[in-house]
């Protein structure tokens, strides 16, 4: 787990209350670990995009089969 | 402290992007934001220096900004100049000379720059890694496909890195288990700093040795006129179609591979780059591509004399190349060549294992940063340690057909690239997450051209394996 820093923990940068404000000021809001816990929403893929992804997936599987075939031929 | 990212509207309360809570003017952000972590503090320290340099202005501070912001681009490009890539370039130079491959290698680095620039934008705008975005935006069905591609590709490539390290140090008489153990220890040492900045600088320092291939090219006393001619007149290749296509695919695979997309985007997010740093991220990528291309060209040039002497590189490892090159570049040059191979394997092992760990953490929802303490990042570091240890152990298996493994890994990397590029293309054009920083039309056209080129090369390779007579018949008609 990414453990939160509590006000009782010391830091070599500044005192704990300042540390909190400093960190928030230095980073963009969505750069903080807590903000990153929120996921982006899922997007709807268009039919053409699904077709593209499936085509390339089939291409990859077919080509991997060819590579395996070539290895098999070379071993023989 | 800068106020980057904290935006108050005049006189009215604003919503915190972090919590959704309403913040009144004058109210402390700390009172409404959730607790920060060590990872946040470490990243904020790095950002402080960037913000301070940006506030100063002037040419010197621009240079300081560049120094602070470069890293992921150079690391990914020099990381991809890995053991298997360098062996592939060496085999290319020794088998085909410089005629075709010098310009071709430059072209592959242009492709790599086009592709990697998109990961800089994605990382800087979303602050998320590549695997995380694929899972979030396309769902687990497509997410797992890309993860399986990455995991298999990364593991196989990691094995080849330790093969290169073992072979390179073998030339100096170091026993395989000593060579592999020492490199694993060095890799663990870089990680155990538990600080992204320190890890990045240590890795950059090691990666600088990749440029040793440039002076080695000079030491081989090349024919500069014929090098110049190779760029003006692109000679066709001799040799069988299958072998030639295998070499071409292997050369492309030595420059553009899926792990690079995952690594650079995750590293960009981990380093804390923001929208205002994208320009420097692009310079970083271009600089990395230029340095890596120079080193890659250096390897081809230095091994080209083996082509002139009709030496067969089919079963050469790093040590054999170093041995064969001794009459050309001397004993000292050969030692440098083998050490260059060791560096190539080591930097790639560091960056590739990091890309695996980032992707795992992003998908499993575990903390994933090189700024984590060992306790916080138990899962992240465990994956990193484990995949390195397994790959290192596999590379020690005696009797592995090393060069064949290396070539196959590069070819598989090229074949896996078009599906990976499709995800990248869709993400970089996703207005909901990228806003006004979606890819411009010219970048989309170039990316589409890269996909078509990679897919065509793969299909031609497939035809050459299944129906080699097609190429013989074609050659007869020409």
Radius of gyration of chain A: 25 Å
Largest sheet of chain B: 2 strands, antiparallel
**Helix percentage of chain A:** 55-70%
Molecular shape of chain B = globular
> In angstroms, what separates the terminal alpha carbons of chain B?
69 Å
| Count of helical stretches of chain A | 3
Residue stretches of chain A low in confidence (pLDDT < 50, at least 5 long) are 7-14
Please count the beta strands of chain A (DSSP E, at least 2 residues each): 0
With strands numbered from the N-terminus, the spatial order across the biggest sheet of chain B is 1-2
Mean pLDDT of chain A: 80
How would you characterize the overall build of this protein?
The complex is a heterodimer of chains A (76) and B (478). Chain A has 76 residues and is an all-alpha fold. Chain A contains 3 helices and no strands. Chain B is an all-alpha fold and 478 residues long. Chain B is built from 20 helices and 2 strands. A two-stranded antiparallel ribbon of chain B has the order 1-2. The longest helix of chain B has 47 residues, at 318-364. The radius of gyration of chain B is 23 Å and the shape is globular. Chains A and B meet through helix 1, helix 2 and helix 3 of A and helix 1, helix 6, helix 7, helix 17 and helix 19 of B.
């Amino acid at each position: 787990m990414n453990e939160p820093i509590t006000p009782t923990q010391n830091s070599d940068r500044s005192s704990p209350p300042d540390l909190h404000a400093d960190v928030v000021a230095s980073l963009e809001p969505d750069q903080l670990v807590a903000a990153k816990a929120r996921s982006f929403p899922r997007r709807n893929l268009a039919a053409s995009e699904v077709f593209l992804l499936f085509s390339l997936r089939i291409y990859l599987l077919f080509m991997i089969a060819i590579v395996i075939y070539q290895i098999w031929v070379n071993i023989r | 402290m800068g106020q980057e990212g904290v935006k108050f509207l005049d006189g009215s309360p604003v919503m915190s992007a972090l919590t959704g809570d309403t913040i009144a003017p004058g109210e402390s952000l700390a009172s409404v934001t959730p607790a920060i972590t060590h990872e946040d503090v470490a990243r904020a320290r790095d950002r402080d220096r960037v913000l301070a340099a940006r506030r100063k202005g002037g040419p010197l501070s621009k240079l300081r900004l560049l120094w602070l912001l470069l890293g992921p681009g150079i690391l990914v490009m020099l990381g991809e100049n890995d053991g298997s890539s360098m062996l592939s370039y060496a085999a290319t130079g020794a088998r085909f000379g410089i005629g075709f491959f010098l310009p071709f290698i430059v072209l592959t680095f242009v492709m790599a720059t086009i592709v990697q620039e998109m990961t800089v934008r994605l990382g800087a705008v979303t602050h998320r890694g590549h695997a995380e975005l694929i899972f979030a935006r396309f769902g687990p069905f497509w997410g797992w496909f890309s993860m399986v591609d990455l995991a298999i590709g990364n593991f196989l490539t990691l094995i080849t890195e330790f093969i290169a390290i073992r072979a390179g140090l073998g030339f100096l008489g170091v026993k395989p288990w000593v060579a592999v153990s020492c490199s694993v220890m060095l890799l663990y040492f870089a990680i155990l700093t538990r600080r992204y900045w320190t890890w990045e600088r240590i890795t950059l320092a090691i990666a600088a040795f990749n440029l040793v291939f440039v002076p080695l090219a000079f030491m081989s006393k090349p024919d500069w006129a014929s090098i110049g001619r190779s760029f003006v007149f692109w000679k066709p290749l001799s040799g069988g179609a299958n072998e030639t296509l295998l070499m071409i695919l292997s050369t492309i695979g030595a420059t553009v591979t899926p792990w690079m997309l995952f690594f650079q985007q995750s590293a960009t997010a981990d380093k804390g780059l923001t929208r205002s740093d994208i320009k420097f991220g692009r310079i970083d990528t271009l600089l990395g591509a230029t340095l890596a291309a120079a080193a890659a060209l250096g390897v081809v040039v230095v091994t080209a004399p083996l082509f002139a002497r009709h030496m067969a590189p089919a079963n050469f490892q790093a040590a054999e190349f170093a041995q064969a090159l001794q009459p050309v570049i001397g004993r000292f040059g050969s030692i440098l060549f083998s050490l260059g191979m060791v560096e190539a394997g080591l930097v790639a092992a560091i960056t590739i294992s990091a890309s695996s760990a980032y992707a795992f953490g992003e998908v499993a929802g575990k903390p994933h940063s090189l700024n984590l303490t060992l306790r916080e990042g138990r899962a992240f570091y465990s994956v990193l340690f484990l995949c390195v240890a397994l790959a290192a152990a596999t590379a020690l298996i005696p009797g592995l057909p090393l060069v064949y493994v290396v070539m196959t890994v590069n070819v598989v990397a090229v074949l896996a690239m078009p599906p990976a590029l499709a995800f990248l293309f869709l993400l970089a054009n996703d207005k909901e997450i990228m806003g006004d920083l979606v890819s411009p039309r010219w970048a989309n056209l170039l990316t589409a051209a890269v996909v078509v080129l990679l897919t065509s090369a793969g299909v031609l390779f497939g035809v050459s394996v299944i129906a080699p007579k097609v190429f013989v018949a074609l050659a007869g008609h020409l």
